[in-house]
Design brief:
The structure holds two protein chains of two kinds. By secondary structure, chain A is mostly beta strands. Helix content of chain A is 0%, strand content 49%. In chain A, the strands form two sheets. In chain A, strands 2, 4, 5, 6, 9, 10 and 11 form a seven-stranded mixed sheet that branches. A four-stranded antiparallel sheet of chain A has the order 1-3-8-7, with no helix packed on it. In chain B, strand 4 and strand 5 form a beta hairpin. The termini of chain B are far apart. The chains are: A mainly beta, B mainly beta. Chains A and B meet through strand 4, strand 5, strand 9 and strand 10 of A and strand 4, strand 5, strand 9 and strand 10 of B.
């Protein structure tokens, strides 16, 4: 049973380009969470999704950032017109359906560098 | 003041030593997580606690809900334990599977051989 898979592991973009980060949850998990870790800072919640639904996006910047978790395929975190301040590690976590213990399983992270 | 505070910020130990890492929080919580992150690596969930104590191998985690404090203990420490240890809390207002966690900044542990 593969763990949470994130790709790419490393991504380099120039200012103004788009970044797409993908997350495939563990098999059987229907809840996905995205977190951002800025250099020298702690992790911050961004968004919580279930299949085809955004449940809580209170941690998402108001502009340029969007997330989806389609019925088929991985969850995608999209950052449009990237700026240097977007350089960070982006972690995805997944958990089983409602009624679980609340445990989270994290991916290896995607490290975005904006030149 | 951050909702989750960890101390000390950096910790160096000699192999074999008993290590304690602390976490204090200021909000009501439904659960507390201890996470491990190796340099440039992913995040591994070590424990999830809502009360009492849990043990896994050489790791022990305790939580005191009344004092809003948790500790992570490492017995017989080893250089491979060198990592960042992060405390995260799920606030009491979140329910079910909504794991909107609030994280501490983490403690960098170095265990010297």
């Amino acid at each position: 049973n593969a763990g949470v898979m994130q790709n790419p592991r490393h991504l380099v973009r120039r200012r103004g380009q788009e970044a797409r980060l993908r997350c495939s949850p563990m098999k059987g998990h229907s809840h996905v969470y995205w977190y951002r870790q800025l250099p020298e800072e702690g992790l911050k919640f961004m968004v919580y999704l279930q299949k085809e639904n955004i449940i809580d996006e209170s941690g998402m910047p108001k502009e340029r950032f969007s997330a989806e978790f389609p019925k088929e395929g991985p969850s995608i975190l999209r950052i449009q017109q990237v700026v240097r301040g977007d350089s960070a590690a982006y972690f995805c976590a997944s958990s089983p359906p409602q009624g679980n213990t609340g445990e989270l399983f994290f991916g290896e992270g995607s490290r975005l560098t904006v030149l | 003041k951050n909702e989750v505070e960890q101390s000390p910020q950096n910790l160096t130990a000699q192999e074999g030593e008993f290590i304690t890492i602390n976490c204090s929080y200021s909000v009501g919580i439904s659960a507390l997580h201890w996470l491990q992150q190796h340099p440039g690596g992913g995040i591994v969930s070590l424990f999830m606690l809502s009360s009492g104590k849990k043990k896994h191998g050489r790791l022990i985690a305790t939580i005191n809900i009344q004092e809003k404090h948790s500790s992570l203990h490492i017995t017989a420490s080893h250089p491979r334990d060198s990592a960042v240890y992060i405390c995260a809390v799920r606030t009491a207002i979140t329910t079910g599977a909504n794991s909107k966690l609030t994280f501490g900044k983490g403690i960098t542990l170095s265990v010297r051989p």
